[in-house]
Every structure is written in C-alpha cells, then in structure tokens.
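assembly run, all chains below
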Amino acid sequence: LESGMFVLARSIIEKMPACDVALLLESSPPANRKVLWNLTDHDQQGEILEELNEDAKDGIISLMDAANLVAVTEGMDTDDLAYVLRGIPDSLYQAVLEQMDAQDRHRVETAFAYPEDTAGSTMSTDTITLRADVSIDVVLRYLRLKGELPEATDALYVVDSTDHLIGEVPLSTLLTVDPSLSVAQVMNTKTGSIFAEMPELEVAKLFERHDWISAPVVDHDNQLLGRITIDDVVDIIRENAEHSMMGMAGMDDDEDTFAPILPSAKRRTVWLALNLVAAFIAASVSNMFEATLEQMATLAVLMTIVPSMGGIAGNQTLALVIRGLAVGHIGNSNTRWLIGKEAAIGLLNGMVWAIFVAVAVVIWKGDITLGIIIAGAMFINLLVAGIAGVTIPLIMHKYKIDPALAGGMALMTVTDVVGLFSFLGMATLVLRY
Amino acid sequence: LESGMFVLARSIIEKMPACDVALLLESSPPANRKVLWNLTDHDQQGEILEELNEDAKDGIISLMDAANLVAVTEGMDTDDLAYVLRGIPDSLYQAVLEQMDAQDRHRVETAFAYPEDTAGSTMSTDTITLRADVSIDVVLRYLRLKGELPEATDALYVVDSTDHLIGEVPLSTLLTVDPSLSVAQVMNTKTGSIFAEMPELEVAKLFERHDWISAPVVDHDNQLLGRITIDDVVDIIRENAEHSMMGMAGMDDDEDTFAPILPSAKRRTVWLALNLVAAFIAASVSNMFEATLEQMATLAVLMTIVPSMGGIAGNQTLALVIRGLAVGHIGNSNTRWLIGKEAAIGLLNGMVWAIFVAVAVVIWKGDITLGIIIAGAMFINLLVAGIAGVTIPLIMHKYKIDPALAGGMALMTVTDVVGLFSFLGMATLVLRY
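ok done. output:
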C-alpha cells in the first residue's frame, strides 16, 4: 500500500468479505484507514461499517457527508443504524433523516426511543410474526412466497390481533411437525421475552443462561417490538469482559489500539492524575515518619515491600469479586461468607509471607528486630488487603460506582497506606523505646 | 435452608430450571453445595452439571461413584461428557466406560482423540447429514419422521458417500425454497468449516467475525466429524476474556468465587512469591543508594511516587496490547507503529506529569533541585513504561508466554527498577557534586 499500488490494493479489497476488510481497517493506523476506506467497494461500505469497533467506526463516519451516510446506512440493521446516527452532529442528522425513506425513518425513531445500552436500542425490528389460528401448512407456503428469512432467525413469533406476544414457533418445529396442525397447537408459550428497557448486560446473562439464539423484545404491555439475536449478544459479552479488564488498568474499553496519539494521551491522563493523588497520600504517610527514616535508611530500602505485597493480594481478591458481581454470583446472602473466606486467605498467606520475608530480611540485613517488624506489617497488610478486596467493590457496587474502574485505585491506596503506616509505625515505636 | 427445611427446599429446587439450579449452586459455599446437590432431581442432574462452571463441576463430580456418573452422563453433549470423564480418576473412568452403552462409548472416544481446548474436543457429534441428490421434499419428509432436531441446529450438512463435507443447507433455506428442487441446487457450498485440531480461540474468532450460529467440524481429509454451536463459543469467549482479566491480577480464571480456603490460598501464593522476588529486586535498587537515603530522608518519602506512576502508565499500555493480541489486531506490520505511538504518549504524559509533580514537590518540600530531579525521573520512567508496555507482551507472545499472566509482573519490575534508579541515581549525583 505504501508503495502506491492503489489499483492492485483496490482489486484485492473488493474481493475480501466485509468482515475481513473491517479487521484490516481496525488493524491499521488512522492515516491508512482513510486511504483504505476510499478503496472499498461502495456497496459493501454499510456492511463493513457494521463490523467495525466503535472507535474506528466513529473515525470513518466523521469522514462522510449526509448523502454518503444515507447511501451507506440503507439496509443496515436497526441497532447499527441507530448507533451511526447517535454519533453524528445534529445538523448532519437532520439532513440524513430527510433523505431517508419512510420505513427507515420509522426504524430509526423506534430505536431512538430507548436509551443506549438497553434491549430496545440493541434489537432489530425485522421479525416475522404469525397468527395462532393458521395451520403450519399455510405458514410454510407463506415462507416460500417470502423467499428469504431475516438473518439469525431461529423462531417465528406468534402474536394476537393487537401484536401481543403469545408464543413462538422454532424453525425446527416448523420442519418436524405435521403440517396440518395449527400454530396454536405447536407453539411454545413459555418463551422467554425481554423487556425493551432491560439493560444489555441483563440480556446477555439471560442469553448465556438459557443458550438462546434469538429472543423477542416486548414492551410492558407485552406487545412485540423486535428481537435480539445472539451475534449482538456476543458483542455485548465481549465488550463487557473487556470493560472489566481494561477498566482495571484504567483504560476505556472503547479505546481503539490504533487511536491517534493526542486523544489517547488525554484519555489516559485522568487515570494518572488519580494515581498521583494516591501516590502523594502514600508519600504523606512516609512523611509522618521522616525522622525515623533519617535515623535508619534501611527502613527506606525495605518500606516498599509490604505495600507491594498487599497491593497484589488485594488485587487478586478484587478481580474475583468483580467477576463474581459481573456473573451475578454475589448477592446479599453470601457476602458475609465471602468476606470471611478472603480474610481467612489473607490470614493464611499473611502468616506464610510474614515468616518468609522476615527470614529474608534477617539474612540480608542481619537485624532480627527489623525482621520482626516487617513480618508484623506484612501480616496486617495482607489481612487488610483480603477484607478490603471484598468490601471496597461491594460498597462501590451498592452505590452504583463501577468497581472495575475505581476499585483498583481505591484498594491500592488502602494497602499502601496500611502497609507503610504499619511498617514505619512499628519501626518508630521500636526505635523510640 | 439453614433452618433444616429440606422438604420445602427440595420441592422448590425441583421446580427450577436446570440453569437456575446451576447458578444457585455456583453462588453457594462448598458445604452448602453438597446439601443442595442431594436435593436436586436425579433426572435433572446431568443438565445441571452441564451448566456449572469448571471448579464447581469438579467438586460435584468428586462426590459421585461410577453408577451415579453413568446415570448422570446419559444423553449429555459429547463435549460435556468428555469434560466429566477427563476429570475423574482412571479406575473410576474404566468403571464408567464399562457401564455405558456402545453409542455413548464411541462418542467419548471421538472427543478424547483431540486435545483439550481444540475444536475436536468442543464439538458435538449430533449432526444431521443429507445427500446432494435427494429433493428438498424428501428431506422435509425425513425431518418430519425424525420428529426432533438437535439443539441449536441452524443448518443441515451435505456429505458425499464417504462422509466428505460438500455443503450445507440452512433451515431457513429448507423453509423458503421450492420443495421440488434437489439439495444440490439449493445448498451453500462456500460454507466455512473448522478443522478438528483448530484451537478453541481461533474457532471463537471465526464465529465472531462471521456471525455463525453453528459450523461443521472436519478432519484434514474434509470428512465431517461434528459441529460446534454458538452456545459453546459464548462460553469460550467469556472464559478467554475472564482469563485476561483474572490473569492480569494473578488469578486462575477457573477459580470459583466460593472455592474452599486452603486451595485458594495455595493458588494465590505463587503469585505473591513472584511479587516478593520483584519487590526485593526493587528494594535492592534502593539499597544501592542507602548512603544517599541516609543523607536525605525526604528522598525516601518521595521515592515511591515515580515507580507508581510508571506502573500505572505501563499497565495501561499493557492492557491495550493484550487485548489487541487477543482480538488479532496486532501483527508484524503494525508493531513498529504501535511502539512509536505508545512511546509518544509516554513522552507527552511524561512531560505533563513531570512538570506537575515538580511543582507539587517544590511547594511541599520547598526544594527546587528535588523538583527537577523528580521531574526528570518521572519523564524517563513514563517513556520507558510506554515502550516496555508494548515490547514486553509482544516478546512474550513471540515466545509463547501468555502476556496476560506474566506481563504485569515483568512490567512492574521494569518500571520499579527504572523509576527508583533514575530518581535515586540523579539525587546521588546532585548530592555528590
């Protein structure tokens, strides 16, 4: 590409499936993305856009004008369409909406009625509905006339005359039952349905637990609004898991690996600022013991060990609790047991590592008192780390703060302060008397 | 439950769907699990076992004898069956195998032929195959005779007389085409198929990229062996994402939130041991400067700030690269660009925070030289953190070490050593001259 062989590149890209072009775009630095996008086949652009991750998608959208956007969004799934339109400036949005046909405009408005990250904004509206009183034979003939089913259709939904969901007929049922039976006789009435206001994450949990491939979305009156398919749920699951992992490192999960430098630096700097505050809190703890440190510089050499071990132990517990909260395993009934368990692990590992570090320090520095002090501080800090590792995320969860984001920093501050305070504090007492 | 109302509990549990019982078991401490398991409906136990996470599953399996296992595993999916049998002792395994019927035994042997975590061990063998020369009408009549399709079937596979895969017919096609056509006329021959030896993670990537619901598994001769369904892929995606998150905190992703205390403590202690080594390496760096620290205790108070900021900045980059490697965005063609980008971010944030921390230190300690020293160390460490955050995981990836597991610890050692060395080293030079 860099050697300017655009014609060749274009012919290669045009032959690639949309999902591969999307991967290629995501794997390219921003400057190359623009060039690559202009080489893509116009008919394929909508499909490619659907496959891109959010950061890359936003970059591409910002290159387009209204006419371009209308052309690209034609035939898109409702949820992707809503995403694209949510991201563009208001003036452009009006222009795009005006150029759309009535059906597309209606679909956009439906999706916009629900807040982002709910079932309503994720659903697509291309469902096939049946009436309960017709026979399977009629359904089969209707489907043959239709000639094509929407993507990832594994069931047709049965509604009454006012669009209330009353059941579903899986495709496998249509294929295996006697065609002379009526829909009412074969339909599955115990279908799980999803309220449009349900948060995405709850939807993903339901899909995972019940191994669904698609599920109907209804309003509070049980009227059918659309359906959610497993491919969207897979994206939700992946995004959420990435959110925990990236969040714990202080990163935005939307951050694209190849985002431009300036915005990336800006996004990360917030986290560094918070850490600086935490680091100064820890430093002010050591500052309280400056006189002691002056007396004995060896303390300064050793004082980083205890906070570091506490940070690691606490982080282990934190990761476990964050996952437990995400999966839905942790509730009121078992928190006390969990705190007890993690405290016990802290106690146990605290003892093991207190002894170990004491021996190491005595051998290294030849000072038994120092060994005892560091052992005591280690034991206290690992115990506190275990308890704080459970209680901090649970308290944050209760007050609707995301523990994957804020938990690590809060925990580290606690283990740093407790680690430094116990180590330097005990050393001060021993030196004084 | 604690009040001994077993009869009531049993009747409640018997009415719950298997997936909810599994969630209940996973959310319970080990002692309660045993009691709850004994209250479950025997006919439902197989299904419950399939839904449990690995740690909980192993705990339950260890309670059962051969006859029990045979009863429970009857009718299980091949992949779950193989999992259960992989986990039991050899003597029990033989006993279970002897009590199985021939068909189940054959299924077990197929799955066992492939290593764990490959497509072959994840696939199920309950596929429906068609011949290319029959008409759709015949297929429809055959399916009606069969009366039921395997779970999550979205396509039937077309094979030749020696079981080679030649195409697939989606259920939606069966329902929409003219029944007088032959299978050969309607089948999709460009089906994506998966080799049995393909690692699970690659399989998950293919499913995500192509929005598949199920896909055929073939051997190198293109003979059909079975199929993989999206519900198994969802588990793989979730496990892998959890692996990154838990791994970065030094935890095993299989670790169950309610695992007993002793094994949990033991599993975590390895990580603490590694961290202790890292902490002692950092301490030995400060030890080189003990004379300097003795001269100026304020250095001891401030010396934790620079390593801490470097650790955070490096970890941000590390998380980004680990995700990029997992998703497949990072390859040979763009690593140099990525290193350049992260170094630039490190440079930028290094400058911002160097100035900031210098001002804070000058105000706090009233010492301009100290401010200049800490600013220099901060700048160096953030730059190194950015570069190490990309190169460490990439080198590990090259040598097949999992960066999600080992990356954080290695990186922290680098940022601690560089941070302490640059801060204390510069201070020593300044104090000396």
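The CA atoms of residues 311 and 357 of chain A lie 16 Å apart.

Chain A touches chain B through 113 residues (CB under 8 Å).

not gonna interpret more than that til we talk
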